[in-house]
């Protein structure tokens, strides 16, 4: 068995573990700091909305030697709006300009054709109206709201309302971080971004539900014992699924990292950035929230229950009694050991005296038992 597998088995059996739940205030502080940073980035920089949401035009050129900078300058001069140009892997250009009218789109298309020295009909143009973009945005928000509501209802039925609340907070945490990173990086928000967000929400829920399922089994008949509190059982369950969470997260992040850094970075396939960044950040945030946010939150909420408070009181009382019993046992053991040592010392002293007396008597008898020849 590998070292990681051996560690996972020891974590599952409770032989080793890390106190995630006990140090939850540290994780809460880190999460709050990251969330505030994401919100500030979102408020200061805002989101770079794609033409699917803001309206505009996309111009795709045939293979050309014209640089992206030259094409960007041409498009901005012709349209009067900022342009985003991507150099694709097949040496074609993708020029995107937001908030263009039909007349401005035609002028931009003609200017790009003149700069690239190609016929106008070789520049493929896709125009998206602002009203259609608003419809896409509204549908995305509606789908996200419905998704959240269904998740809360399902978790409340399958587990309990406390777990549903904790999972919802973890989902909002993941969404906020992902959107904040999008704002800080400046990547374009497209329908692919929405698909990525929905995907990472599902993954985050999957990881959280795995932990919650183990916790539900471990906490069955918890009030009939006095060895562990609910927080301690939650921590043991979390440690039991820790290696599994790490393995699934790493395996999921590797191909996404390939899409983001190799496909979007080295190969210049910019359209992959839309979905890969959301997946990469969301998967990492989802794994973090399932371990450091969702389970500690459940423990916090559960410990407020009167039954769990009574259980914690009984556990503390039993441990105090066990400690007192061990202390008295140690004291008695020390006293017995001291008494034994004292008895041994007395016996040794007595044996010494007896030995000396026996030795003296022997010498006397020896001298007395040896009559001299003179007496004879």
Write a structural description.
This protein is of the alpha+beta class. It folds into 2 domains: 3-49 and 132-314, Multidrug efflux transporter AcrB transmembrane domain (Multidrug efflux transporter AcrB transmembrane fold, Up-down Bundle), CATH 1.20.1640; 56-128, Alpha-Beta Plaits (2-Layer Sandwich). Helix content is 74%, strand content 7%. It has 12 helices and 6 strands. The protein has helices at residues 3-13, 24-45, 51-54, 68-79, 102-116, 130-158, 161-185, 191-218, 230-240, 242-266, 271-303, 306-368; strands spanning 48-49, 56-60, 83-87, 93-98, 124-128, 188-189. The strands form 2 sheets. A 4-stranded antiparallel β-sheet has the order 3-4-2-5. A two-stranded parallel ribbon has the order 1-6. The longest helix has 63 residues, at 306-368. It starts with a helix and ends in an 8-residue tail after the last helix.
Order of helices and strands, N to C? HHEHEHEEHEHHEHHHHH
* CATH fold description of the largest domain: Multidrug efflux transporter AcrB transmembrane fold
Strand content: 5-15%
CATH homologous superfamily identity of the largest domain: Multidrug efflux transporter AcrB transmembrane domain
| Tally of separate domains | 2
What is the tally of beta strands?
6
Q: Termini separation (Å)? A: 93 Å
Helix content: over 70%
Main sheet: which strands, in order across? 3-4-2-5
Choose one word for the global shape: elongated
CATH architecture of the largest domain: Up-down Bundle
Number of helices: 12
- Classified by CATH, the class of the largest domain is Mainly Alpha
């Amino acid at each position: 068995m590998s070292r990681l597998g051996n560690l996972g088995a020891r974590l599952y059996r409770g032989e080793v573990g890390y106190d995630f739940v006990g140090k939850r205030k540290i994780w809460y502080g880190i999460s709050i700091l990251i969330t505030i940073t994401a919100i500030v980035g979102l408020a200061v920089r805002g989101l770079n909305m794609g033409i699917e949401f803001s309206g505009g035009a996309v111009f795709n050129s045939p293979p050309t030697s014209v640089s992206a900078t030259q094409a960007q300058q041409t498009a901005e001069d012709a349209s009067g709006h900022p342009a985003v140009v991507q150099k694709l892997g097949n040496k074609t250009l993708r020029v995107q300009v937001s908030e263009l009218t039909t007349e401005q789109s035609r002028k931009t298309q003609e200017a790009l054709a003149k700069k690239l020295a190609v016929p106008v009909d070789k520049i493929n143009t896709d125009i998206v109206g602002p009203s259609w973009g608003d419809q896409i945005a509204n549908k995305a928000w509606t789908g996200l709201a419905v998704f959240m509501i269904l998740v809360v209802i399902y978790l409340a039925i399958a587990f309990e309302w406390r777990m549903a609340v904790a999972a919802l907070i973890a989902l909002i945490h993941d969404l906020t971080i992902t959107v904040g990173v999008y704002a800080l990086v400046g990547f374009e928000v497209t329908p692919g971004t929405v698909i990525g967000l929905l995907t990472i929400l599902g993954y985050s829920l999957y990881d959280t539900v795995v932990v919650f399922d183990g916790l539900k089994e471990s906490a069955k008949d918890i009030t009939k014992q006095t060895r562990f509190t609910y927080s301690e059982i939650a921590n043991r369950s979390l440690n039991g699924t820790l290696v599994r969470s790490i393995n699934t997260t790493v395996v999921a992040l590797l191909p996404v990292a390939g899409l983001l850094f190799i496909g979007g970075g080295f190969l210049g396939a910019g359209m992959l950035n839309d979905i890969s960044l959301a997946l990469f950040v969301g998967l990492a945030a989802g794994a973090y929230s399932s371990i450091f946010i969702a389970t500690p939150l459940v423990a916090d909420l559960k410990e407020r229950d009167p039954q769990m408070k009574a259980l914690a009181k009984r556990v503390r009382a039993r441990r105090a009694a066990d400690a007192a019993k061990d202390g008295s046992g140690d004291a008695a053991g020390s006293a017995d050991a001291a008494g034994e040592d004292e008895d041994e010392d007395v016996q040794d002293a007595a044996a010494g005296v007896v030995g000396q007396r026996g030795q003296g008597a022997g010498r006397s008898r020896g001298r007395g038992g040896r009559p001299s020849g003179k007496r004879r």
